[in-house]
Amino acid sequence: MQLLERLEMMHVGIFHFNLWNPLRNESLFDGLSNLRTLNLSKNLLSNLGGGDTLPPGVLQQLSALENLNLEDCDLSDIHPGAFTGVKSLQVLILRNNKLEQLPVTLFQKLIQITTIDLNGNFLTAFERDNFLSNRQLKVLLLSNNKLTRFDQSAFKPIYSSLLSIDVSMNPISCNCDLSWLMNWLSRSLILQNSKKTICASDSLEPLQNQHLINFDPKDFCSIDIVPILLPSLAIICLILIVGITYHNRWQLRYKLFLVKLAAIGYKEMRDARDHNDYEFDLNVIFYDDDEDWIREHLQPAMAERLPQFQRNVFGDDELVLGMYYLDAVDYVVSHSYKTVVILSRAAVRDRWFILKFRTAMDHVSDTGTEFVVVIFREDISDDEMPFLVRLFLSDGRPYIYWTDDVRGQEYFFKELTKHLTINLRTNDRLPVE
């Protein structure tokens, strides 16, 4: 028995319980290590192992088996490891059974298989990895099933080996998803029974009930350039994004810092000293032409809103006597709790006024305290704006605009009062507006 190479058991009334003894874990074919051909066709092998499966142990010892015929055996399900051990199998016949779906790993161990016959079953589709290990497969017979579509990924592993295929008498839906198969058939793959391979009624209208072999994708399907262009476009976009991100890295950091400020805010740092710690409460620097506005609007408002400010210096006439002019300006600026600078068109054109403004700015930098408030009496165009003023604004220092509107003036004095009652420490980490 051990030397037996061919065994024909066709239509001999074998049942599943004759092949496998689950109590003793024994197979009918144990010891047939030289068997090359086994024909079990036309036997009732359904329900093998008690679960519509072919137990893996049945064929485990048939390592030399090359041909296995299980035609017309009433198989509706097969165990995923049924063909484990038959590593030399080349021809597998499973035609005329009741198979509706194949386990993904069913053919995994059949690395030598060249022919698979699945004609006459109820298969509807193949999984992606059904033929993953069958690199030697040359003939695939799938006629008279229920196949409507063919997944390209399922057949990709056997592109280079498969020579012929039979998909006749299947309700094939001939549409553009089948273009890959038609291209394969036009190059190297032979279509068996082409006259019986007909497009189903749900195919593209001109192809309904026509021969599959007459389907030319060029006549019906435009070239899908998306898979071709998408990778290149993605690479180009990635390069552009990296380039733009690098070029704008500082702006992006600035925006991220703003987001951080918006999310968690920042803590204002106030100067611990109040106006009583200074020799002067308020120092107002203005041009001579703006004196009437000072006397009419600013002084009355300060007297009403800040009555505690009694030691005020309004203009050059109230500077400390006995000093040189610029020394006196510097002394008052450095000894004042708050300094207010009134800007007008005439003021920004005056050299001495700009020197006083520079003195105030220098003390802001030296002390790290925002004690200077700028008031724009009128709108000054960019062309007239001195560099020092633009520098002050670019650093985010406090400023407000005067308006002729009565309601606007009420808001103006509220803002000015708020600025004059506290001194904040400068925060150079805070982004400017």
Describe the protein.
This protein has 433 residues and is an alpha/beta fold. Helix content is 30%, strand content 13%. The protein is built from twelve helices and 17 strands. An eight-stranded parallel sheet has the order 1-4-5-6-7-8-9-10, with no helix packed on it. A five-stranded parallel sheet has the order 12-11-13-15-16, sandwiched between helices. The protein has a two-stranded antiparallel sheet with strand order 2-3. Helix 8 (325-334) runs parallel beside helix 10 (351-367). The longest helix has 22 residues, at 226-247. The chain is rod-shaped and about 135 Å long. The N and C termini lie far apart (96 Å).
CATH class of the domain at 275-425: Alpha Beta
Residue stretches low in confidence (pLDDT < 50, at least 5 long) are 48-52
Order of H and E elements: EHEEEEEEEHEHEHHHEHEHEHHEEHEHE
SS-based structural class? alpha/beta
Name of the CATH superfamily of the domain at 275-425:
Toll/interleukin-1 receptor homology (TIR) domain
Number of helices: 12
Report Rg. 47 Å
Shape, per Cα inertia axes:
rod-shaped
The total count of strands amounts to 17
Strand content: 5-15%
- What is the third-level CATH name, the topology of the domain at 275-425? Rossmann fold
Mean pLDDT: 87
**Helicity, as a percent range:** 25-40%
Separation, N- and C-terminal Cα atoms: 96 Å
Q: Main sheet: which strands, in order across?
A: 1-4-5-6-7-8-9-10
Largest sheet: 8 strands, parallel
Instruction: Please name the CATH architecture of the domain at 275-425.
Output: 3-Layer(aba) Sandwich
